Amino acid sequence: MLTTLEQHRSKISENIGILRRTLDTFPRVRLGHLPTPLEPMDRLSEELNGPRFWVKRDDCTGLSSGGNKTRKLEFLIADALEKNATCVITQGATQSNHARQTAAAAAKVGLGCHILLEDRTGYNSEEYNLNGNVLLDQLHGATISKRNGGADMAAEMEVLASQLLSDGETPYIIPGGGSNTTGALGYVVCAAELEEQASENNVEIDALVHATGSSGTQAGLVAGLCSLESDIHLLGIGVRAPQEKQEKMVHDLAMATTDFLGNGVSVPRDVVRANCNYVGEGYGLPTEQMINALKMLAQLEGLLFDPVYSGKGLAGLIDLTRQGYFDGMQNVVFLHTGGSAALFGYPNIFGLPGYN
Ligand SMILES: *Cc1c(COP(=O)(O)O)cnc(C)c1O
């Protein structure tokens, strides 16, 4: 007789096979070091007296210092190549990790890369505007051009695309954060990968927590976990939009992603959860909780997080643990979406001696 747990695992593993075969029908270029490691964070678990914490190391995807956009770009860049693009266009905030990984991915396959950077913070320091991701964008050979905060970035990309077209280029537009159905496939892959690692390591993952912004990461995970009939409790920690808007964005994209997969899986509204209480004053603006969380993990686990996304996600993880959100759960995974390159754009927010 199989136990219920064994039955559950065997159902999931059958579903992983089906999902992998579906994913194999989409064009994909290999850009990332996958699977990324799943590692325990035992000193954090002890410090918080909480469940056992694990970190899924999507900061180690390998491409230009790594991060979550690499998984999305495996599908987006493949689509650009299928469509005979000569260059890609994308947009983000000044310290966009997405822009940096797109610049690297384009370089690797020999496409041109044009990046539009929106000034969402109004910071005028040299580090913010030239160091960190901005330095790396340029090292990868991307052209960057800046736009004021609040600009209609999608429209700006269209304008640039028509200029490039008239110059004889074939541009391919990648939306901000790589968040469309094609990009979200990268996180459908991640959902399958995580369930495989849970089986291999013999851990029952109760919850998965991560920073959510342009929504493709969470939407892909939701679409993947629903396709697998997984019962992992997924929670996004918002970094920009209020809860209702964030959850709607994720739900809409998750539904569009299962449609795109064509597997007939429906996405119940209540599996989309975003907690947007850790945004602070706004996107890219530091909070005290983020700073404390980031320092705590740097010093307890030797891990680097970023001020805009993963640091705020962690602030949520830590605070919610203290509030008892994970009570009764045994294994909680934090998806490390990367971003540490942005630290060099924000050297003076930590109150460290010598920086001001
Ligand atoms: C883009 C990004 C996120 C958010 O992912 P979305 O798919 O945009 O929701 C989280 N963490 C880091 C470091 C990022 O660069």
How would you portray this structure in words?
- The chain has 356 residues and is α/β, with parallel strands linked by helices.
- The protein has twelve helices and ten strands.
- The strands form two sheets. Strands 1-2-10-7-8-9 form a six-stranded mixed beta sheet, sandwiched between helices.
- α9 (216-228) links the parallel β7 (207-212) and β8.
- α1 packs antiparallel against α8, α4 (97-109) runs parallel beside α6 and α9 (216-228) packs across α10 (243-261).
- The longest helix has 20 residues, at 4-23.
- The radius of gyration is 20 Å and the shape is globular.
- The termini are far apart.
- The mean pLDDT is 97.
- Pyridoxal-5'-phosphate (PLP) is lined by residues 67-68, 97-98, 177, 179, 211-218, 306, 309-310, 337-339.
Secondary-structure topology with pairs:
Elements: H1 4-23, E1 38-40, H2 42-48, E2 52-56, H3 69-82, E3 87-93, H4 97-109, E4 112-118, H5 126-130, H6 133-139, E5 143-147, H7 153-166, E6 171-173, H8 181-200, E7 207-212, H9 216-228, E8 233-238, H10 243-261, E9 274-275, H11 288-300, H12 310-322, E10 331-335
Parallel strand pairs: 2-10, 3-4, 3-6, 4-5, 7-8, 7-10, 8-9
Antiparallel strand pairs: 1-2
Helix pairs in contact: 1-8, 3-4, 3-8, 4-6, 8-9, 8-10, 9-10, 11-12
This protein binds pyridoxal-5'-phosphate (PLP).
Describe this structure in a few short sentences:
With about 350 residues, this protein is α/β, with parallel strands linked by helices. The chain has helices at about 5-25, 40-50, 70-80, 95-110, 125-130, 135-140, 155-165, 180-200, 215-230, 245-260, 290-300, 310-320; strands at about 40, 50-55, 85-95, 110-120, 145, 170-175, 205-210, 235-240, 275, 330-335.
